[in-house]
Amino acid sequence: MKKHSLTRQVTSIVSLLVAGAILLCWVLNTTLLPRYYMHNKKEVLMENYQTISNASAQNQLESDEFAVTFDNLCSNGNIMALILQQDGKVLRSSVNDLDALRTEFWDVLLHGDKMEVLYSNDQYQLLRKTDTRLDSEYLVLVGVLENGDMVLMRTAVESIRESAAISNRFLLFAGAAAIVSSLLVAFFITRHITRPLQQLTDISKRMVDLDFNAKYESNQSNSYEVEELGNHINRLSENLERTISELKTANVELQDDIEKKIQIDEMRKEFLSNVSHELKTPLALIQGYAEGLQECINDDAESREFYCDVIIDEADKMNRMVKKLLTLNQLEFGNDQVVMERFNMTELINGVANSTKILREQKNIRLELENPEEAWVWGDEFKVEEVITNYMSNAINHADGEKVIRVFYTRSEDKLRVSVFNTGQPIPEEDIDKIWVKFYKVDKARTREYGGSGIGLSIVKAIMDSFHQQCGVINHEDGVEFWMELSTK
Question: How far is residue 88's CA from residue 77's CA, in Å, rounded to a whole number?
């Protein structure tokens, strides 16, 4: 499409509309205007007759007041009028040439049957008269008043044809001027309208090339619709830019996900290796001591009892590890039902503290509870107890230095944070995000000493995720703080 074609189209349409309007005026001027003029003249003649008839009924035809009215009727309507008494005496006349009006009157009376009757009633007749000698046409009203006086009124209608012809000639000149004016006005107006549209077109072309820097500049002289379109183009440009940016980000994230999948595959391999390793040791011990019993290496009762204790202990470790793996699997896949209820956190912590009392005493660990008498929260009490138990067991296994474990609360508007702190060595920063991974151990040698499996914190993370609540770890100079959050409302 050619540039500024809209300007030419609008200019052409406006010109055609103006030309059509002028043509319509010409047709109406030629056809309807004479009819309207004729109808109006007939109405004037009949109204004038009614005025004269009313004056006659009130015996005012000879009064000075009616003389003024009579002159106004004749002059305003361009009418020649004559009122004759029954004896032929002229009562009122609009012209001085009475003979001409009398001749007109008698001509109408004698030759009225040759004229076109436009309207007739008991009082008067309205006729159309054509004068072939002068090529003129008249409307003539002849009537008789109630007192017997006769009325003659005549008006020419030829002037309307001349007026229509003059009007048509004027329309030609005026129409030509109007068309030229409309062309100029339409051209400049459409240029004013299409200028911002051309700007928007250029912006859209740049958007096609993914260039979103160009923006529509608002102009108060533009129409409301153009301003709206420009604003929408700007918003569209911003949305496209943002969407493309998000797609790029999503592409990067997808790449990251692929890399994470590779890492997960590696972690899966490591997980299987860890499981195999964790099960391999107790299985080997069980197998070795079982074979010793079978071969009766020592027949004394004390040795057999020791062999059996080792087998039972290792089997118990394997059983606990399998249970933890099953629990973790149920939590991660959402197969473990969560029962949300309101319970007293302080009572739960006191219960866990009592159950771990023997282990703390064996390692000379001091427990400090900085908890109020009541702290009500929402959650699955059984699973929250498992979280606190894992935190407490982890603290007991890693408590060092002053060997102190401190349990305390931190309150917010609708949350209760429960923290379990133990003195000892902080967790290396590179390992903080990994301690929640199954079988991950910061120090595998020390972990083996206290029998840890590396599953406890994974279970904690899975439980808190099932509550849609947060948990975490914070390093301090003198120890490590593990925390969890629960809703109080």
Answer: 25
CA–CA gap between residue 184 and residue 303 (Å, rounded): 119
Let me know if domain 337-487 sits in CATH 3.30.565.10.
yes
In which residue ranges of the chain is CATH 3.30.565.10 found?
A: 337-487
CATH 3.30.450 in the chain is located at: 5-164
Provide the CATH topology of domain 5-164: Beta-Lactamase (3.30.450)
Q: List the one residue out of 72, 93, 81, 16 whose CA is nearest residue 45.
A: 81
pLDDT digits (tens, 9 = 90+) for 317-342: 566 566 656 565 665 555 566 788 99
- Distance (Å, rounded) from C-alpha 2 to C-alpha 11? 15
**334-340: long-range contacts at Cβ-Cβ below 8 A with a sequence spacing of 24 or more?**
334/466, 336/466, 338/380, 338/383, 338/466, 338/467, 339/380, 339/381, 339/382, 340/378, 340/379, 340/380, 340/467
- Using alpha carbons only, what angle is made at residue 371 by residues 366 and 372, rounded to the nearest 5 degrees? 145
Rounded to whole angstroms, the Cα distance separating 13 from 190 reads 12
Strand partners, 333: none
pLDDT digit string, tens, across residues 379-432:
888 889 989 988 998 999 899 989 999 999 998 888 999 999 999 999 988 888
Got the DSSP string for 428-485?
Answer: PGGGGGGTTSTT--SSHHHHHHHT--S-HHHHHHHHHHHHT--EEEEEETTEEEEEEE
DSSP state of 424: S
Give the Cα separation of 99 and 358 in Å (integer).
Answer: 152
Strands across the sheet containing 124-131: 90-93, 80-84, 150-156, 136-144, 124-131, 116-120
Per-residue tokens: 155: 């008006």
Q: Is 379 buried (19+), middle (13-18) or exposed (0-12) by CB count in 10 A?
A: buried
